[in-house]
Amino acid sequence: MSRLILITGGARSGKSAFAQQLAESLPGPHTYVATSPVTDPEMAERVRKHRLARENHDWQTLEEPLDLAGTLARTEDCPTVLVDCLTLWINNLMYRATNNRQPLTEEDVEEHCRAVIGAAHQHPGTVIFVTGEVGLGIVPENREARLFRDLLGRCNQSLAAAARQVTLVACGLPLHLKQENTP
Amino acid sequence: MSRLILITGGARSGKSAFAQQLAESLPGPHTYVATSPVTDPEMAERVRKHRLARENHDWQTLEEPLDLAGTLARTEDCPTVLVDCLTLWINNLMYRATNNRQPLTEEDVEEHCRAVIGAAHQHPGTVIFVTGEVGLGIVPENREARLFRDLLGRCNQSLAAAARQVTLVACGLPLHLKQENTP
Amino acid sequence: MSRLILITGGARSGKSAFAQQLAESLPGPHTYVATSPVTDPEMAERVRKHRLARENHDWQTLEEPLDLAGTLARTEDCPTVLVDCLTLWINNLMYRATNNRQPLTEEDVEEHCRAVIGAAHQHPGTVIFVTGEVGLGIVPENREARLFRDLLGRCNQSLAAAARQVTLVACGLPLHLKQENTP
Known about the structure:
- The structure is a homotrimer of 183-residue chains.
- Chain A contains 6 helices and 7 strands, in the order βαβαβαβααβαββ.
- By secondary structure, chain A is of the alpha/beta class.
- Chains A, B, C: Its EC number is 2.7.1.156, 2.7.7.62.
- Chains A, B, C: GTP binds at residues 9-16, 34-36, 51-54, 63, 84.
- Chains A, B, C: Belongs to the CobU/CobP family.
């Protein structure tokens, strides 16, 4: 059974860099699963920088906006997988559901999370998920934004319950919320 | 003198569920003080779910949007009281004050908090308050929202200073900010 | 080489009061460096309250919205300097850059931070910086706000990497993210 690790934090907290360093401290080759469909120049620039930061290492990059469980099943020969990030994954699931006129519910998110957790537990290596904390501001006026933060919060709770390590990153520094030792 | 406990966290952080489990680990019967006036379907659905989660236990529910001090005085025969949540309480106080054309100030909030803390300290059992962290986003453009986050922050500081235990919940996991042992 | 301390937290988390108490526990005389240009009545009231809170102590106040490195160089005879806060400093740098039609970038922020860190390290005493966490809410719709939270996050990471102590304040209570002992 794999090690499942969850790294969370706010925007520009250093969570992705922390997760990447953690991954690079573990056996390679490494797989980076990017959940971002690149849709605007701001995003493209971020992706470019993230890619540069990895380029001197033995990383392969997969882009997968939706099917994380299937992607994890296809990376079982890779000892360390980094999924960056669940925030965009939930966003993508929400967007697809809305397009299908079937708004995503918390129950849907729990089901998607169960599949991802299952695939992560099947994985023989370490799977590190990066996610975001978006629930510590004022209640958003926008109904979609309120739904998004509820769905992401639910996702984070599910993953954290299944994870062996959960770390909140602030100012680039880790704060461990959960740390179970290997039996 | 009672034990006063403060549980804080962001939206969908698992703070209410954590507070409820903590309450259920303490002697019953339990009283749940709901500060939410149910004003819209989204809220009604949340209340319904919260109520379901409690229904197999010896909980009685009181709804009290404003007079928390008086409500605590009336529950002194109940060893464990859970007040969920201060976020809505401050919101309700603010709304009433605005209707009375006397906008709520930080000094008003401190006075209300003193009364609630006094009632909690008179209570012979354990009083657990759930609150929210709303100050870790961008400064809201809306003036009312800015005032609300200042008032709630003030309230949280007052309660935390008086509490024996203060716990921040993130991803469903507790991070203890304060933990005093019983003398 | 000075002690560099970073105190962070959300709005009304008690971070400034915590930083001030920390400063007052260290040798005086103390210098308070205010980065706020007082531009509106709401701000003026905050500044007035902060000033009142300091008035019984041996504080001198300097107002400096932009040149923190130069200001630190001019306070080397003062054993304890409190800079409150970096949130407004980044805001001021951003505003000036926009006025000059040269939008501030993360690279610019890193350069400004290097200068400030250099000045703080030259300082013979303790330099305490207060900053804010603004990245834990929903992605702001406003592009300027998105840029601001990225720039501030970058600034906080730079300062935290250089600091000997980094403390997150929530509900008025400290959570230490980093604490290095003096060699």
